[in-house]
Amino acid sequence: MQEKLLKRFSAFMIASTAATALLLGGCEGDRGPRGAQGPAGTGVFTNLSSSTADQQANITFDQQNSTVNSVTIQSPPVVTFTLKTASGQPVEGIGRRNASGQLTNLAFSIAKLIPASNGTPSHWVNYIVTTAPTNGSAPTATRPTRDREGTLVYLGNGQYRYTFARDIKLIQSQVNAMTFSGNNRRNDLGDLTYEPNLTHRLVIEYGGNIANTSPQLIYKNAINIVYDFIPATGARVTSSTTGAAERNIVLTKYCNECHGNPGDPNDLNQQGWGLGITTPHAGRVDTRYCAICHTSQRAYGRAISNPTNGAFTGTTYVTAEAGVTDPSTGEAQVLGEFVTLIHKLHMGSNLTETGYNYAGINFNEIAYPESVALCRKCHRGETAQQLAVTPQGDNWRTMPSRKACGSCHDNIHFATGTNTTGPAHPVYTNDASCNACHTPTAITESHAQALVSPLNPAAPAGLTNFEYQLSSATVDATSNNLTIKFRILGNGTPVTLAPPAPGLTTSLAGFTGSPSFLLAYARPQLETGGAVPADYNNLGKVAAQPDAISITTLLNTNNAAIGNITGPDSSGTYTATINSASAFPVGAQMRAVAMQSYFTQTGFDASIAGRHTRAVIVPVTGDAVRRTVVDPDKCKNCHEFFEAHGGQRVYQTQVCVTCHNPNLTTSGRTISDAKLAGFAFTPIQLGILTTWDPAFNKATPGYALTFPEFSNNFKDLIHGIHAGATRTNPIRDVRNGPGTGITLIEGSEITFPNMLGNCDACHITQQSYTPDVIEALRPRVLPSTQVVADGTPPTTAGIIAARATVPNANDLVVAPVTAACVACHDTPLAKAHMNANGAQLGAALAGPSYTNMGVARSTLPSATEQCTLCHGQGRVADVIPMHGQNRPVLVPTSLSTGSSAARMVKLLLNW
């Protein structure tokens, strides 16, 4: 049915554009901005028991004003609380139960905080570690769970009273009366004594799966109400409470930077969304909740796994060296405990021991997208604003422990002092002496990275931190000479470059190498007629790449024909002049100069000596400026300062597009027979290549000609990489690297930690990724080159020649809107839809999407794509609400869930 609808819809679009316009009616007009949310009316309630599944999925709760009103623990805990929507409406009807009598979407948990002692940090012990009592049987022990079997009473106006099914005062005695054997170890459950003078944490959860929906719907905006208090006094515990223990180390907002949308970066009380949507447990959306269920008690019922020569086999819920039988007393790692679980997950492929398998998650196969040494990514407690929300956010450097540190540094076995990758460590059986060596200063320095960034404010001692500044770039209208005003700061002070001299090879004392200038531009090409392209194309350059001219080259007076450098002036600014023959071609437009690459500091280890520095770019004065689509600060949410090409290009995506432009494709087919045959592929690379082709043989003449080729245009490449394994045909990329290097990318190994439809994760605005943007740029916007070709059977020499003359009439290209979409949406159905509506995908229509896509450049009409008719802003399948369909909060409100348009939209989304 879905395919039939799509075929009818596509045929209809092609056959009658005018009729489509009539059908869509008001699509042509400007709807104007959406109005602000009005106040809740008097007596208006949201009753979830009578709401549709879509209404439940899209309800948004008020995170600030949904509150715990009181907690009393005289026998089973009794909690009163208020639940409101974001628009201030009281919520009714939350008491739905399953056949076992458990609340389906409402749950409660409660834990006590054991204070720090003898160097060991504080930790949570959850009381809910038994089954609920019933009249017919005694409770049994479990790992931490939720109380959902109690009594719920609606008090009116969104207020409820819940009485726990379990009496937490009796849990200790109930557990002590049980019989334990095998992996059911009593000590794993901890000291369950009710201690009313300790800090307790109550969490109320509302969310999770919505009953009787297929495919399964969830509450996209689940809520966790977290309440820390002291039962003996009833006092609430906050960062300003005097004399009460707290444990708030990680802010959910920081997780959501990579796993969703963190909201306003300046408002630390706005946690955003992500956890529970892009991570397991749909109703658990707050790290404070995670911490009281993922305790060391998760060792209960789990076997202890011992490594053999540093490798585990089977499942690994609890790990320890041979001889440890009690995780509560011996040195063991409980992989389900929050600190251990999160550290090991993110340490991933950097872990020393191998074979980790926690509930089917293979830790060693996870690639973390930034340095795992950036502890501040999750732990921030150095400013008053940070300390107000995470008072213990600085624990990573002020309170080292065997558990926290050992969860990443699994090469160290503290009980024996064994270090499997280096010198022995002192033997420690407790945490009392950790900070004797590992002081806050020492820990900070040992985790410092070479590239200074917001999460890494200082490089290792002695290293120089550079900053590049480009003041201007001008081209003389008469001579065509290019003049660049630039300054380089070293640790905040303008540097003094070496004076120009013949044969000069070192431009700065104490350093080798130097930054360079990239010269990017646009000139008309086949598709644009006489119009200047809206993208850089560097027409006339090999593989459409901009020229790079280093500072060292310009300081070497033997290169006077290329240009020179003079200065500095009183501000430390230098003037670089690049003569016409080496500058932009005459007639080039949308010209820009980027400053990139780096100095290498002498006398330091090679791993940190390269002083990678943020790239910068400036347009030539008076020229048009290339549009900005991606916000590099958003890349920073996952990558901190993204370093590409060995640190040559850092952070600035507007520099990326100077090279990754529509005429660039992958280079694997240019690899010579000799280079391929002599290359020493790693076992992982061989695994990739033999997966692609079981008959792979690097000695086969001409084998490189069979490698995939596809666009390396920025949007195609980044969409394809981040879509990763979710694509029908994940990207396959082979690159002919400099010298003897060969690089492979296997898309099926890539997992995006965010929602793939969360385009806001990268784009500057929602409007920046709509097809309307491309439509407005026609005919200046370029198609994406997928394969370079000269019209003859491919040979290595022919492909090299075609790359030198790109764009060529016989190159395979894909129209610009389609290129952006098909890089993620590459199912046969999606490709058929695109092809029927103006895209021309060539062999990729029925074949894989990672190679040989598109049609000859000379045969691609300039404006056949009809995407905006339905996918433009305000249209029936506007890409903004479509990509927001499954995201929290960002849900279209203009479509009725009962309308035929909405039903069609939902079908189209199931690509």
From TrEMBL:
Residues 1-21 form the signal peptide. It comes from the Bacteria. Keywords: Signal. The keyword Signal applies. Pfam families: Mtrc-MtrF_II-IV_dom. Residues 247-447, 627-883 form the Outer membrane cytochrome MtrC/MtrF-like domain. This is Cytochrome c. It comes from Geomonas paludis.
